[in-house]
Amino acid sequence: MCENPLNSIIVKSEKVNLIGLEPEALIEFFSRLGQKSYRAKQIMRWIYQRGVLKFDEMTDLSLQLRDQLSNEATLSLPKMISSEEARDGTRKWLLDVGAGQAVETVFIPETNRSTLCISSQAGCAMDCSFCATGRHGFNRNLSGAEILGQVIFANQELGSKLSITNVVFMGMGEPLANYRQVVQVAKLLIDDCAFGLSRRRVTISTSGLVPQIRKLAKDCNVALAVSLHAATDKVRDQLVPINQRHQIQELLESCWHYADSLASRHITFEYVMLAGVNDRIKDAISLIKLLKNKPAKVNLIPFNSFPGTAYTCSDDEVIIKFCAKLRAAGIVATIRRTRGDDIAAACGQLAGRVKDRMRVRLGDRQIRAANL
Ligand code: SAH
Ligand code: SF4
Description:
By secondary structure, this protein is an alpha/beta fold. Helix content is 35%, strand content 18%. The chain has 13 helices and 14 strands.
């Protein structure tokens, strides 16, 4: 049965939250109000380009339509619970998504770009052993309004001085496990009537959901980052449990297929540096075998610690040597500079506030990963 997109965004008062709604659903909404389809584009420009969230202020709509909209619809954003700013200018917001759940959004200013890192789920069910989000379990998928609401919220907080040039789905959650909503949001991020970002400036990061990677190539081929983290199935099975279902070769085949859809673009492979686990020269050699002469870039991420983890980060010299080994083999490799770690805003440190429902329902962690 085909799911009605309007169902997922009806708020308690039965009003429809128009934020994050795909253009087709907006057209349907306006046609129910007896309005022409061009209204959809008109309202998208107000919301996403001018940041206007009050129907009253949408001056090119008739007073009657503004009234109608106030009765039938809302423009609701997640509410801010707290805001922190790191020494390096990174900002982190904790946002309330209802029923005691809260997710985190991070803004990372750099010299020639500014990246917003958004969450796609309250928690994450993938259970990667080195990740704080995974450790806290999973509660639910975020709606399109809750995901895109993070971008509008951040724009409002930052004001006109700082603008978001890039958006990455690297906050809490596995974006491709919330496929429908994430694709809907990604399409709005690149839509000229909405945010109008170039495809290269929107990145979906995945732990390796192969069927969804293949589908994404057709549906919305924005930039793709894949959390590889190991060059052998034995090690990856331990770090990223979804590997037990989709092994490295199968994952890489889906990546090369994806890269073909991108017209000479690269897939970024993320590789967290864990002392004694995946950081030896023999690991670099295995990685080279997998990625040499392929449309691949490697981003080495120094492990960010969090309370209760048994992992430690590789020493700086080890990371530098690992990177040099890859480069000597002709692979483009970079070391990610850790940002915002003094406010726990760095990769893998986002925990938000999540009541783990998977643990209650399924108990066993392996079933949790396999059932997605
Ligand atoms: N769930 C998606 C995107 C969010 S995580 C994914 O896994 O790709 C963003 C990146 O941070 C991923 O590459 C993830 O593996 C990495 N990461 C998770 N925990 C980390 C940690 N403690 N230190 C460094 N990187 C981490
Ligand atoms: Fe989920 Fe990504 Fe963390 Fe794995 S690394 S548990 S997929 S958020």
